[in-house]
């Protein structure tokens, strides 16, 4: 009996203790930092441009190289963590991130800043899959793991919300490099507390990392993300076509190699699990729908309504706070509602948020924009939390790093596609409306600048007499409102389709037996 009891105890999930929850707090720190780091640099761009005087091409690389490296290296780093140890990779990445942050803060040239931003992106790619896969090991009880992932995801929400506030405050009193130094104390805490609170975990059966597969994987995502971003910036061009085709060809070679290897770097059999593949696809589509409109929201607040980046950030704080509060209800609801019902219902609620954005028109309807962002954020939380949980829990424990990296890569690709495809459509709508309504008296060079971007139009407005400026401002507001409405319609359609997808392909999942998991027998 004692032997059977011991075997039963070994198979029963162990509830998390104080050490596990403290470990989660440590894992949330880099998540918060990475989300914050993605927002503050855009605020610092004018300041570093005045100091380092980069060319327009160099400035674009300063802004973009971080995202390129993260997207390109996520899956490689996730599988590397499975092999060498997730905690080890997390600590190596934390040390590299802190070191690169100092180098970035004290960069003396544009090229130096580009290189340090690239190093920040590569080290950042080690942090995301490592934190998520370690959560899988820390929390064995499904209900506790769902709650842990919920709290982990609040790091993104808080980091995104306070980014403009923290960045604006730092730039008010310090030089542009101060925004990079935020990472140093966070990484020091992680390096000190990580070895004490986080257990090591790895795939003991994994072989050596296949360098050829790693190069193919990195090449695939670097080419695709570069092509997508160039599409968003300049439209269809030869370089866009070459980059996308090259990425697809390299990706095909990567998939072909994984199928032939006895021990592949990335196990494609993960996608045979319907919960895993549906969650990955749904997360990509959800982020795709959101990013195309979120890009327009901040431009609308600053460009059309004339708010500063700081006050635009202040208006987004209520959305983030409400999302955090509602997200904490998701684990409780997940104990009583089937995942397909909870996720699809949330996405349908998100569609109503897009409808609110379709009705926004000027300062009088600002409340609709705020309500819309709140409703969208609340609606997608079940998808982001339960989708992430499904991705992590559907994969075998030894493949946790690769599975975590896959969910993060889907989010990165969704964001890049949203900005490129939906953002390009919004830009085309803006340009068409501006070309139709721009004043004939405007100089041809000024008209070309105003038609190109809302930022260019606002620059032209500052140079015009009061009456002409007022006429052009009305045209800009109407054109950009039309672009926002178009992107909101597209986002609503994508999110509605995603709701149908999850309702259909996640319906085989049942409510977990929370009562047994929460109270294991002794």
Descriptive overview:
This protein is an all-alpha fold. It folds into 3 domains: 16-207, MFS general substrate transporter like domains (Growth Hormone, Chain: A); 210-264; 274-510, Up-down Bundle (Growth Hormone, Chain: A), CATH 1.20.1250. Helix content is 81%, strand content 0%. The protein has 19 helices and no strands. The longest helix has 40 residues, at 466-505. The radius of gyration is 24 Å and the shape is globular.
Quick overview:
This protein is mainly α.
What are the SSEs and their pairings?
Blueprint: H1 2-11, H2 18-52, H3 56-84, H4 86-105, H5 110-138, H6 142-173, H7 183-197, H8 211-234, H9 238-260, H10 274-304, H11 309-327, H12 330-334, H13 339-358, H14 366-394, H15 400-437, H16 444-452, H17 454-463, H18 466-505, H19 514-518
Helix pairs in contact: 2-5, 2-6, 2-7, 3-4, 3-5, 3-8, 3-15, 4-5, 4-7, 5-6, 5-15, 6-11, 6-14, 8-9, 8-15, 10-14, 10-15, 10-18, 11-14, 13-14, 13-18, 14-15, 15-16, 15-18, 16-17, 17-18
